[in-house]
Specification:
By secondary structure, the protein is mostly helical. The protein has seven helices and no strands. The protein folds into two domains: about 60 residues, no CATH class; about 55 residues. The chain is about 60% helix and about 0% strand. It starts with a helix and ends in a 13-residue tail after the last helix.
């Protein structure tokens, strides 16, 4: 019974004793993080993230402004999946490349079409109407197909 009460007291004591707060990160370590983030090694990035996580568990009033800016950049900055898909100027290059390709293909289509042979005379409307009249005169059944008549 005494050992149980001692264990309970030890648990209560350990849970209510304030843990030592992590010390503030140096300004040189977290300042201008946006410029340095892509050049940091993966291990350094993860270490910085973990250290900032530990600091963010404290009241935000105790964080320095450089730490707040670094935490914001890591959480919402344009790196990783939020990195912009296109660099500045890439959209105009894509637009002009697509426009040029469409114009070139239209010119190629018109050029090839102008070199083609004229359409056959059997494609005219008069020819088709004459063929229909001929098949009607032979009592051809359009449901089984005109090609059955010889």
């Amino acid at each position: 019974m005494l050992s149980r009460s001692l264990q309970r007291t030890a648990v209560r004591f350990n849970s209510t004793v304030s843990k030592s707060a992590p010390r503030a990160l140096s300004n040189a370590y977290v300042s201008k993080l946006e410029e340095r983030w892509t050049h940091l090694a993966q291990q350094d990035q993860q270490a910085l993230i973990q250290e900032l996580k530990a600091r963010m568990e404290l009241p935000w009033g105790e964080l320095t402004s450089a730490e707040k800016k670094a935490a914001y950049y890591i959480s919402f900055g344009s790196w990783g999946p939020r990195k912009p898909m296109y660099n500045p100027g890439d959209k105009s290059k894509i637009f002009w490349t697509v426009t040029g390709t469409v114009v070139a293909s239209i010119i190629a289509f018109i050029g090839i079409r102008s070199l083609a042979a004229p359409p056959p005379h059997t494609n005219t409307r008069e020819w088709q109407e004459a063929s229909d009249e001929y098949l009607k005169s032979k009592n051809a059944n359009p449901f089984s197909g005109y090609s059955q008549i010889q």
